[in-house]
User: Fold these one by one.
Assistant:
Number 1:
Amino acid sequence: MKLVYTSVVVLVSSVLIFLSFAHSYSPSSTPSAENSMPGKRTIIVELFTSEGCSSCPPADALLKTLSEQQPVPGTEIIALEEHVDYWDHLGWKDPFSSAEFSERQNEYAKAFENSGVYTPQMIVDGHTEFVGSRAGEARETIQKAASQPKATIQLIPTERSISGTAAYDIKITDLSNLSQGRDVELWVAMTEKGLHTDVKAGENSGEHLQHAAVVRTIHKTNSFSSPNSYQTHIALKINPSWQRENLSFVAFAVDKDSRKIIGAASAKL
């Protein structure tokens, strides 16, 4: 009788464990979408680069390593690889280049009071800039940025049935100690990973270049002043030529006066 009782207990326990496991991995369960690495400080690392620039491939490789290996403990690195267009007339037209990225870099040059722009330029959280191939400086700067307080940004996907857009409700909290009543800008971007090029001309002729998360589009959506929180809805159109499985939606809050990024989040589509 004791053996039978023990067997029943074991059987019931096994069933309960199985049901608990099945519930935890149920395909129908939908976790809330927010910063992709909860509990970590999220840092934006921008790289202004060009396939026509011979000194840029090492910087591209560094950004790719930072974004894929996430080597800084307690930190999530969001890579924004922005290809400028002012190299395009020097032998090779970069297929990922855009005037909007060149304009964004020029705006940074004004904020940093630089005399001009250059490639490769890496900028961490809109606050610190340096030559983009300097691995040690990049790691040190990211660690320093991660020690600063950050606003919290949640990305909640909506309108999933519309295949040609990426739509999110964006909620920003913990702003009061960061913005101190100043205006804050909300920026959004779409990035695509897995991109590569066989360069046929220019300074990198004959090279096979592999990229990090290439920015497909980036723009300011809103400017606001809020004591602690802000919420909005953003939908970005997806170009049919982009590979949806490689796309990420990125949102970040910027202090309008200093250009410093005070919070960020990303979500894979």
Note: The CA atoms of residues 21 and 236 lie 37 Å apart.
Number 2:
Amino acid sequence: MAILQKPIMLNPLSLIILVVAITVHEFAHALVADRLGDPTPRSLGRLSLNPLRHLDPIGTLMLIIAHFGWGKPVQIDPYNFRSPRRDELLVSLAGPGSNLLLALLAGLSNNFLPSSLTPILYVFALINISLALFNLLPLPPLDGSKIFLNLLPLESSLNWEESLGRYGQLILIFLFILPFGSSNILSLILSPPTTFLLHLLF
């Protein structure tokens, strides 16, 4: 599932980049699930790079209005996997991983393309890194919650799943709305790793 916390003020260019980032994120989930034996995403038309297959109408509207939005979650059936817990973890990693790969490609391209394109490549990398890191937080409905749960022993996973299901989204909302200086707690958490990765790439 691709959810984006506000990284920058939106303009037409960044909105286009957002659509690309969310599309690739959701496509990566669908592709890995399909390769691991689950036909569900393919049957629902999600094995596609067509943005219309992956954009949630309300999530897209929220991107424009509130600079906070989401893509349409890719539905999977873990029982179709050979190793349900391992394969669900890989599917969950695929979305953020694809965004980090796009950011890496932008950083590498910056070494070969005209310097006039650097600002565009920088914003492209910023949005993809922000999308990846935010979705790696171990809180539902983010990808990180499934990654976290599938890394735990089964019994511990079941206990944590109940707690996260009950309080995870509430914690996420509080992180987003609680102020910290001119921003919020969520930005305080995500800004250091985002800045570090951008410095590595540019």
Note: The chain has a mean pLDDT of 89.
Number 3:
Amino acid sequence: MKRQLISPNLKLIAATASLAVLVLQGCVPIVAAGVGTGVAATIDRRPYGTQVTDNEIEIKLGNQISSKFGDTRARVVVTSFNRWVLLTGQTADEAGKAEAERMARAYPNVAQVFNELTVGWPASLTTRSNDTLITSNLKARLINTDGISANDIKVVTERNTAFLMGLVTQREASIAVDVARTTKGVERVVQVFQIISDEEAKRLSPPPAGDQSAPAATPR
């Protein structure tokens, strides 16, 4: 079998494109090396340990639910931010919706569960692609909006409903909701924000790049 050779320039273009996608999603990662592993952490107000826990919840709980229902009975998306879990997608019946929530509430380290599953056929590939486009457009608008940091806001879109998660002040939440409501394709906005004070936001926010004097956020 012949191997296709890729020039260094093409590799550079591909890497740049991948980084651009991460930036639009608000997930510019820091890679922290562990013992034989690498763990990606985003630059936001969560302590590093909480980010690791959120990542584990999304992957392991998501796998458990998928194993329970299979692809034909449900499509459940698990999103975790600061141990608050959002369930989106579809289940075949109300019993499946309730069971997915029960599994989420029983999972270790989960503090809150928001069950936004709907009953019906799983969303089509076209619908999911449109949701991905809405998410990207909304994140891009948040990046360009004064008064908020897009890194502190996680966006999930399901059938034209935009779900907003994050550790934000009331003012930041209001700004983000206004941006979401005026984003093309968004028909409904659901807040899953954890509201914090201005003082708490300042304490938890990462220091500016290159600022070695700013104190690190204290883990909660």
Note: The beta strands are 29-33, 38-42, 74-81, 84-91, 112-115, 118-119, 153-158, 161-168, 188-195.
Number 4:
Amino acid sequence: MWVDIGVNLTATQFAADRADVVARARAAGVEQMLLTGTSLPDSAQALQLAEQYQLYATVGVHPHHASEWRTDSDAALRALAAHPRARAIGECGLDFNRNFSPPAAQEQAFSAQLRVATDLAKPVFLHCRDAHERFLALLQPHLNRLPAAVLHCFTGDQAELRTCLAHGLYIGITGWICDERRGQTLLALLPVIPLDRLLLETDAPWLLPRDMRPAPKSRRNEPAFLPHIATRVAMVMGVSLDELAQHTRANAERVFGLV
């Protein structure tokens, strides 16, 4: 019924019970997941887990790890992308909020990964925090040669949302909308997103929906909680859960070639 396009199954929070996490997700109706690669070693592990559990993965270098990009990273990324379960380049982009890597290094790694994606005709799985204008400036020249671009875990404002939609981006929505402290603006913007551009994700183990009752004792998010997020989305967008599931699943299958 559901596809979670953003699961960090490689995270150490899942090390002790990954098989159970996948089983709980499937029992909750999350039939397919896209595992997020955030560095080259992490992407290799994501592909191994995708093979093991019959899932899919992205391969790329997150802006936090951009300083790790080297002259041989391009070839290494292309090799990972050749794996049959690699369905997008990313998570890549810019994060000027934390700047765990210097902005110049982030821009270099992002541009390099965009070139890989266009060369290989792969969609991109994107990250943007406090970098909207520069992010679009680097991305825009590649858009007409990319099969699709997904802005993962969107948290921007209305102007940024409308600009991203105008550029043809798909929008990933997480449990951010379930946060009464910081997610209410985005929650109100959901009707702006066309159903044929909407994708759902947990970003597990992070972004646990704060309105879950009872809250998990572990305080850890899981892909099994995607239907909780979907319920909020459907309510605000004025559609049934079945309609939302059909659209978001079709979008994920179209963008990432899931089967």
Note: The CA atoms of residues 20 and 166 lie 40 Å apart.
